Amino acid sequence: MDPLSITASGAGLISLGITLAGGLINYSKAYQSRESDLARLTQHAKELESFLKVIENRNDRLQSSSTDVIDSLQGCRDACNACLQDFKALNTKYINSQPSRGLKGRSRSLMLKLRYPFDKEQFDGLRSQLHEFYVELSAHFQLINLDVTQNLRSEAISEFTRVVSVVDSVGDRLQSTISNTEYVVVSTIRGGVDQLKSAFEQTIQTTENNVSSRMDTSLRHVSDRFETGQEKQTTDIIFERRITIILELQYSRLTRDFRIHPTLSIRATVPRDSPAFKVITQASRTLRSAETTQRDAESMIQSCLTDLRHIFEDGKGWPADVDEYGSNLLHKLLYGLIEMGVPINEGNMHHHLCLRILNHLVQGLLEKNATLLDITNDYLCQIVFYTRIADLYETLGCTEFLLHVVARSKSDVAFMLRTDPSVIYERTKRDHTPLHLAVGWPGGLQVLIELGGSAIQSLLDAEDVFGTTALEYAIKMGDADSVKQLMQLDPEIEEYWAFYFLSGLSDRAQAESIAHTIAQSLALRRTKLLQFAKGNLSMRTIRNLGVRDDELLDAKAFDVANALRQQKLQIPVAYDVVQPGSVYHHHSLTALTAEKLFEAGFRLTNTEISGYTPVMTKWGDEYPEFIELIRWFEDHGADVHAPIPTLLEDRRVNPNANGLQPVYPALHFIMHEIGSSSRGILSRDITQEQLRYIRKLLSDRTTDPCLCYCTAKGCTSALKFINGHDPLYSWLWYDNIIEFFGLALSVGDETGAVLDCIRFWTFNRLGMKHTCCEYSPHRELGNVLEHGLLKLMHPDEVAEIREEDRHLAKQLGDLMEEFGRKFRELRWPPTQFMKEYWRPRMKEVEEERNELSVDEKHRIEEIGVVLDES
Ligand SMILES: [Zn+2]
Ligand SMILES: [Zn+2]
């Protein structure tokens, strides 16, 4: 069946269902029996009937909040199901009924038996009808789309109404026929269903014809109007309109009543460069530009709104249009805010201006009936929280109480909480608690905390549908005050996540203040955990765990918590969130958070967990912040040369036999991370101090036990820096890297770092294969402990590859001798040397190799082999 007719016949089905239920009741009455099964069946049928009547009685006077149609139809289906079950039971009973003992019972049973064959047909008919109704009802769970032009909105509504009235009148006729005689019930229903079907089919056919002919006309009309130069074929996509007909069953909490009303929404899927989207993209771009002045921005916003109005009026767009990815104009605007770097709580003036203007634009779109289709992630939530536009909050689905929180009405919030304390448990459609919505409103949070009572503690750790708690929103939005208020309540936050969210904050003052709060509260929790342990564990156990009295509980916290758990002791939730390792092992630390932790009394910057120190568990993602972090670690006692642990099976190579250093230093891993995050570009943001530090690291000559032709005597830090670049893109960044070296190192290359690189590139250019160390993709301590950090090749494989590349290695050696000599002789900057000497020379080498193959070809031909020229 056509999807439109499925939905449209929903109303018809309901009246058909009522009829059926009426038939069932009459059927049961006909027996004049008090038998409980029949009574129950009658009861179910009555329930089904009244349920369907309630749905049918639409009451337009009631304003109510919407609930899902599926839920209500589900109830209807359940009632149906119960009826079916009882029918089945009844059937079985009639067939198998045993003679009763008493005379009265026997005669009744005999009467039923005699009567059964006469009633069987009617019985079966009703059962199959009920089953059919059940099946059709299930089919109505689907909602549908039809392509049509926007002009068809009213057309479709009237068609829909017509369908509904046809269905209703058929239903009425059925109803009156049935009440006359019960024996006609079955045949009338059958006839009615057929009639209904054909009536639907006819009406739907007409609607479809209307829709398609109207669409053709509109499309022709539209493409005629289309600006010259624009491709006609795109018009098909732009004006592919979708009509969504939704039978929306609304349930009102206040009146406890149901109503159904058809909602029609028109939404088009348009390409991202369609007119309205272009206007919005352009507006966002202008606002993002640092050169935009306030006046520019204001005049831009005016013209933007005017353009949008024209576009909507001309039918070239619609406020609810979506692009291929399901984003509408409002989403586009809000994502624009994210790109600008909101949270902008304490942001600079430019951001404030953007926020104000975007608010204006959002309002403009809302006035034209645009809706925020959906909130798909917590970034959008942050924006919605920030813009503080009531219409956007509608998307969240707030209750009356939550709306007061959103509107920041302290007196209303307090009043409602005092009147009915249970409102504190209310949540939005997206599971936001009042605490989530009050982030950024310290006064409001205070009221909630004071009047919310014991409920607050449970709301503290409540997550919304995106898995984000109120505290996490506060951190992400950079709201230091809210963080402080919420942290005081001892929420169950893993500091690991707190640090992770913090690393995303662009505003330094906000980040500093929040990092301070988190570090201090972490220190306090650790002190409390230790006190709790001292109160519950023996002194000997504590001593054996290696806990020291004069130190803040750090790397041992995990063992202490485990010891408590072994004693079956319930650790207070807030200090139970402990991970293995020192706080400095967290992989998403920044120099700022590290400093705050140090200030709070944590000192274990160089502590080992199974040989892994904190500098070995870091992502180098953020550059140059990562350099700053490593510098901080070195300044605070971390050893960047600490050996990275090797797995047992990797300890087969005897480095001493090859005259190599025995350990793989952490520094190489650090350089690998700097290499991969910098992409060879010396950032403009880098300070002179950071540059000096990079120079120091690049010039470090510590080597490792790697046997690879890319190095002369084990890997060096410069080599690992280049190695950090994805080999697939290393040629893309090649010029950058040389420039980086040129800037970072002195011309003379006293340390040999530049020659290391030249060797590496020559090795690559000759097409040789690496056998040196690599790193696993894990950085989080737990994973590193499980999978290891170093990835080493099996010694047999190393030997095999080195044997294969033996001849190329000889050529590499010769070339390196030449490049070394020339580099020292010419004393050119690395960039110039690579460009003017190395490149032409390598080209020559490649040509020689090609000639060599021509030579080989001759020799092959000499021995009588005919080579196919094609
Ligand atoms: Zn290598
Ligand atoms: Zn290595």
Strand tally: 5
Strand order of the largest sheet: 1-2-3
Q: What is the percentage of strand-forming residues?
A: under 5%
Major sheet details: 3 strands, antiparallel
Small molecules (ligands, ions, cofactors) in the structure: zinc ion
Over the alpha carbons, how many angstroms does the gyration radius reach?
38 Å
* Helix-strand makeup class: mainly alpha
Number of helices: 35
- Tell the overall outline: extended
Query: Which spans have pLDDT < 50 for at least 5 consecutive residues?
Result: 1-9, 58-68, 97-107, 141-152, 181-186, 222-266, 343-349
Classify the helix fraction into a percent range: 55-70%
Instruction: Note the gap between the termini.
Output: 60 Å
Mean pLDDT: 73
Verbal overview:
- By secondary structure, the chain is mainly alpha-helical.
- Among the domains are: 3-215, no CATH class; 269-373, no CATH class; 638-856, no CATH class.
- Helix content is 60%, strand content 4%.
- It contains 35 helices and five strands.
- The strands form two sheets. It has a three-stranded antiparallel sheet with strand order 1-2-3, with helices on one face. Strands 4-5 form a two-stranded antiparallel sheet.
- Helix 8 runs antiparallel to helix 9 and helix 25 (591-599) runs parallel beside helix 26 (625-635).
- The longest helix has 41 residues, at 185-225.
- The protein is extended, with a radius of gyration of 38 Å.
- Residues 1-9, 58-68, 97-107, 141-152, 181-186, 222-266 and 343-349 have low confidence and may be disordered.
- One zinc ion binds next to loops.
